[in-house]
Amino acid sequence: MKPQTAVEALGSLAHEHRLALFRLLVQAGEAGVSAGSLAEALSVPNSSLSFHLAHLFRAGLIEQRREGRSLIYTANYAVMNDLVGYLMENCCAGADCGTDAACEPAQERKSA
Amino acid sequence: MKPQTAVEALGSLAHEHRLALFRLLVQAGEAGVSAGSLAEALSVPNSSLSFHLAHLFRAGLIEQRREGRSLIYTANYAVMNDLVGYLMENCCAGADCGTDAACEPAQERKSA
DNA sequence: GTGTCATTTCGAGTTTTCTCGAAAGGTCAT
DNA sequence: ATGACCTTTCGAGAAAACTCGAAATGACAC
C-alpha cells in the first residue's frame, strides 16, 4: 500500500459522519445499507451524506451497487485489512507481537 | 473507544508526514526516536515537525520521554490496537472473520 | 550565570475541507 | 412520456488545517 493511498483512506475515516458510516457498513456485512437508510440513521441531509459517501468511495473503503432505485453501499474489507496491515507493518522492531488482523467475509471477495 | 477519540486518532494519521512519523515509531519499538532524528528523516523544518508530533501526541498515538536534552518519541501500541479494534468492531454481521489484531511489545506496558 | 544545543510555541498567510439548499440525473410504474 | 422517488452534483459561504520563520523555553556543560 502506498503512503498516499493510506493517507486518503485515513482522511476519509477521520470525520465523525464518515467514521459512523464506515462502521455501520462494516457491521452490516455483505448485505450493505442504502443511501437513504444511511442518511436517516445519521440524521444528515442527503447532499451532505452523498458528499461523505463519495469521499469514502474515492478512498476505496466502500463499494456501491444498485438495487431497484436504491444505491446499496458496502464496506470494502480488503482495503480495510490492507490499511491496518500498513499501519502495523514491521511492528515493534521485530519483537514478537501477534499482528495478523484480517476480516474476510465468508462470501466471495473479488481479489483477495 | 469513543467516536470522537477515534476521529482524532484517524485525523492525526491522515497526513503524509504524521503517518510517516507514526510508522517510523511503530517500527522503532520501545527504543523510540528523538525529535531531531525524526526531523532529519523526514526533511521537514523543526517547527513543522513539532506541530505534527504534538498532533499525534494529543491524539494519544505517541508518547514522549526526555533523555538528556533530547525528547524521545515512541508509539503508543495500546491506542493503536484500540483504534483498529474499534474500526473492525462487530465486523461482517457476525460472520466468522478472524479479527484479532494486537501488537504487544515484549516489554512492559502501562495498562494493557 | 553564560553560552550552546534541542525542541516547542507564536503568528500570519495560504490552502483545504465541511455544509446544505437548489437543481439535475437516473430508475421505475402507469 | 409523465410523475414520483432516490440519489448525486453544483456552488458559495464558513470553518479548520498546514507551513515555516522568528522568538521563547528547557537542559546541560563550563
TrEMBL record, chains A, B:
Keywords: DNA-binding, Transcription, Transcription regulation. Coiled coil: none annotated. PROSITE patterns: HTH_ARSR_2. Pfam families: HTH_20. InterPro entries: ArsR-like_HTH, HTH_ArsR_DNA-bd_dom, Metal_resp_trans_reg, WH-like_DNA-bd_sf, WH_DNA-bd_sf. The keyword Transmembrane helix does not apply. Residues 1-95 form the HTH arsR-type domain. This is Metalloregulator ArsR/SmtB family transcription factor. It comes from Sphingomonas hankyongi. The lineage of its organism: Bacteria, Pseudomonadati, Pseudomonadota, Alphaproteobacteria, Sphingomonadales.
